[in-house]
Amino acid sequence: MSSNDRYLSRDCFLFVSPWILSVVTTVIVSAFIYYAYNAPFWQVTVGILALASFFLVVTIVLIVLNEKSAGSRHYHSVKGNGKGKFQALEAQYMNTDDDSDIHLTELKPSSLSDDKSEEVTSSEEREEKSNEEGSDGPDIILEEEKETIENEEDGEDEGVGHEEFVFENREYSPPETETRIILVMNLLLLSAVIVCLFLYTMRFVIFPSSGLVIASLGSQVNGEQKILLRCFQSEMTFEYGIESDKGNRTRMQVQTNSSSDYTTSITIKHLIPGEKYTAIAECNGESINLRWKTLPVVQEPAMFSFAFGSCMLPRPFHERQGLHTVSQLNPDFFLFMGDFIYADHPVWLSPSKEIYSSYYRDVFSDSYLKPISHEIPSFYMYDDHEIYNDWDGQHKDEFPSVALDVWGSYLESTNPERLEPTGHYFSFDVADSSFFVMDTRMYRTTQKRSETASILGEVQLRHLMEWLRNSTEFTFKFLVSPSPVTERTQSMDSWFAYNHERDQINEYISAHNISGAVWLSADRHWSGIFELSPGIYEFSSSPIDAFWSDQELGHTEDILYFSNRKRHIGYVKVDSSTQPAQLVMESVEAATGELLLTTTFVPNDVGLSINSWTAK
Predict the structure, then answer these.
(1) Helix, strand, coil percentages for the chain (3-state, nearest 5)
(2) Strand order in 333-336's β-sheet?
(3) H/E element holding 532?
(4) How confident is the model at residue 354 (pLDDT cuts 50, 70, 90)?
(5) Which segment of 10-24, 137-151, 293-307, 561-575 scores lowest on mean pLDDT?
(6) Beta bridge partners of residue 518, listed in sequence order
(7) Which residues contact 483 (CB under 8 A, 6 or more apart)?
(8) Using an 8 Å Cβ cutoff, are 85 and 148 in contact?
(9) Is the pLDDT of residue 26 over 70?
(10) What is the C-alpha to C-alpha distance for residues 76 and 134, in angstroms, rounded to an integer?
(11) Is the pTM higher than 0.85?
(12) Would you say 521 and 538 are in contact if contact means Cβ atoms under 8 Å apart?
């Protein structure tokens, strides 16, 4: 390979390699964000910008250095016949005063055939020859070359045609077009990354979905169905009735206003157990069809099922696949246990009512949520990300007052009545099962891992104990906690920090021989069944659609089942029509619907006992 070819290869490598590295790295990191989100978003964002900036700077530096070094290479021209030995001198003497090394490069005439061209002496051989002849420098070498050329032209090869070698004095530099293209490509790459991050961060501001029409089934308790409605700056028409009796329909006009982001909730009363109902909501020329089945009569043995979970992290250009799995399971109702939105993702923008409202509109516009909201009654409890990460009631000075107001307008308004006017926790009954849904955020104390530490607060704890005492006529009692209960989390953002209160509740269940009691939890982005104390189990399941956990648990309590590095839906089937009554807990992979675990429990003197077990 000639020197010119080597220079060209080197230039191409120096220019192209940073751009290739930048593209490949950005693609890998972007894929990591898109499919996993297995790291705090702000860290990944900073990483992308740092990588893109680094490769851009490297490219610019290499371009500058390459152009600077290119200016020191010059070439000369000679003329001669086809059989002479010609050597073109590449030298640095034109712009340097020192005795720099002299390099030789090959030069061939354009019309000279390959068999007539001679090999050019290498730089090392030429330097050796110069030393032997006592050459004093480049000028002597050049004169000797000219003399050799003149002698050969007058010699015995006079009959041979002359070939003209043109090798002009000129400065070698890389093509300006290539340099500009590489620089522009890097600038475009960096700009694209910045623009994408900006659009993703501000997507709710730029695309606010302010005109979204919503009709979503909320809770169903004691023959009453609550429904969330949203109609932007207009009146909504709502019509409903029994599916089989199309001639008997009830029609109403529903008003909304801006104070609740044009949302409101209605309650349909006196529903017949076991019947199927349909409804049509119309607003601004758009209509939404609802269809649902009423739940079994309270305190009567029956079969029913429900799904539960939490955590739906928004992803760019990606809908929430886990919601599709929930709709495919077709439960009788859905229990959503927090992190319905991520108000702090990727950054917490502002305590603006419009910003918070836009997060909920984004979720309700998801096509995978619509089969649930249109056909499956749902119950809701908030966790931290409805406000910001790890929020609790002790940070009221940092708490944006609109966050729970907006949550109340969109979700809590369709829940059963609160057990306390200033709280958000509630209870409800389905067939011969009872549920107590806790608020594990508002009442946390600053003390942790102490006898005075509390996650529920005094009033809520008292309500829970009363519920346990009064639920003896129910076969199964579900203690629903958005925060994980197991000691194995080792997280101060869970019941681990309030272990004394947890133990107090479990000891009460044991001391009073409360049969069929079981904990349900979410939040930690894994699924597991834990035995908290003899006969008292916790079934935890999350996330519906967010990054999975790589946490490996310790060895404090018995683990019946544990699954991380997946997304999970908890699915529970209750059958109290058989003897003994059965409670089937299933863990379902959220993205694929694959069944990971099936466990059958039966009521025990205290809590539950395992009847069968199947896990993949």
Answers:
(1) 30, 25, 45
(2) 378-380, 333-336, 303-309, 568-575, 582-589, 595-603, 608-615
(3) strand 527-533
(4) confident
(5) 137-151
(6) 478
(7) 383, 440, 455, 493, 494, 495, 521, 523
(8) yes
(9) no
(10) 23
(11) no
(12) yes
Task: Give me the count of residues in the chain.
Answer: 616
Check residue 536 and give its pLDDT: 96
CA distance between the termini of the chain: 61
Q: What count of Cα atoms within 13 Å lies in the side-chain half-sphere of residue 604?
A: 16
CA separation for the pair 230, 73 (Å, rounded): 74
Q: What are 396's two structure tokens?
A: 């009221």
Return d(Cα 481, Cα 331) in angstroms, integer: 20
429, containing H or E segment: strand 426-430
Kindly give the residue spans of alpha helices, DSSP state H, lying in 458-528. 458-470, 499-511
**Backbone φ and ψ of 259, nearest 5°:** -65, -25
489-498 pLDDT, tens digit each: 888 999 999 9
Structure tokens at 220: 């169903």
Q: pLDDT band for position 258 (50/70/90)?
A: very high
Name the CA dihedral angle for 31, 33, 34, 35, rounded to a multiple of 10 degrees. Answer: 80
pLDDT surpassing 80 at residue 115: no
**How many beta carbons lie within 10 A of that of residue 528, not counting itself?**
24
Token pair, residue 200, equals 């993703």
Taking CA 37 as the corner, what is the angle to CA 33 and CA 41, rounded to the nearest 5 degrees? 80
Amino acid at 572: V
Distance of CA 63 to the CA centre of its chain: 37
